[in-house]
Fold this sequence. Notes:
By secondary structure, the chain is α+β, with helices and mostly antiparallel strands. Helix content is 32%, strand content 20%. This is Trafficking protein particle complex subunit.
Amino acid sequence: VGHAVLAINGAEVNGRFTADGKDVLEFLGNPANYPVSIRFGRHRLSSNEKLMLASMFHSSPEVGSSGIEMLETDTFKLHCFQTLTGIKFVVLADPRQAGIDALLRKIYEIYSDFALKNPFYSLEMPIRCELFDQNLKLALEVAEKAGPFGPGS
């Protein structure tokens, strides 16, 4: 889950080859390919990895406990907000990202307004509502613009 990613001209490198099958050494050896853009970054979590992390928060470790509220590593923080009705919202963020508590409350507000008040929504089913998607995207953009070390956390 925590390994680095190398990309050359936008193509992810895995060993000696790029994701589109080009040999990295041949690519770098050809002067026609210059200038070369090299980017290092963090590996993006797959959907399965996200589900696996989120499943840790599904059940409480003991009766009467609300479960884990935050899991912190050197590369990410996983935040969990549990409502009074037991619904849990999970956000995976950069460990320096501020304002996650406010973001979780905003996500709950969006969920309440656009899923729970929707007569066509069934609990524990995927939310298929354009207004929910739009408002969630806007809330995430606002949180992202606040950036690391913003007000609150």
